[in-house]
What does this fold into?
Amino acid sequence: MRHREPVGLAFVPPMLPTLVDEAPEGTDWIHEIKYDGWRTQIVIDHGSIKVFTRNGHDWTEKFAPIATAAASLPAFTAILDGEMIVTDAQGKPDFGALKGAIKGAPGRLTFLAFDLLLWNGRDLRARKLIERRRQLWSLVEPAQGKIQFSHEIVGDGTRFFGQVEAMGLEGIISKRADSVYRSGRTREWVKIKSFTEATFDIIGVQREPGQPAMVLMVNDQGRYIGGAFVTLPRGIRERLWARVEAKAGAPAPKGTRADKAEWVKSGLRGRVKFLRGEEKLRHASLQDWSEE
It folds into this structure.
């Protein structure tokens, strides 16, 4: 393929899904797995390859194997939107392994392409999503290994989400099949995330008048991971507060910014339900507590 001089294609701020509780239904929606990775954009410009993070940082050197693979795609110019992932031994995306691979093993990286914003001089953003993806398939399908196509199903979002949740994956992304590509947050694309449960150490509580009470927690490595709302039945909640009062007086742990917290001595544990695939607790609620 012959290359002209680059024409100066630039990073395009991504289209971002809105978090919702349930998957939309109907054949006017398509659904993809929500991969536990790093939102990434590849810009191909007549032999110049750039790979950007979601916020527009140029990480071409860190993602060098992906840039090399992109150079082999049949396009003079293209902007691909997708997710950078690393898979574990079971083939599931592993965000922790992704961070390690970026620093020390970039050969493990895979780019999953799910949208095509520009191709060979044609701006595709005003076209329907299904049309953009049809073009994307013709571009990415022949590629092997490093750059792959993110497949979708049409309709039946609830059933698909149930299957994804049962597999232990992070969730799904649902997109209107006729949506055009607009940078920024939108409800034309929505994300539905799986919940999981785990037990962590309670290191403090926040009880402000007029605000929902929260327990503050650290993981097994002692790292602060945020708070979980306390929605327990009254009797269980009151027993928790009694133990908090008895254990009050611990110093504020390093790395915490909760100004109005009551810090407690070790020994209290909480079982928490929270969104899967997050580094810190999100949409978290305390399900039960115990004392060692």
User: Anything to note?
Assistant: The two ends are 67 Å apart (CA to CA). Residues 195-291 form a domain with the OB fold (Dihydrolipoamide Acetyltransferase, E2P) fold (CATH 2.40.50.140).
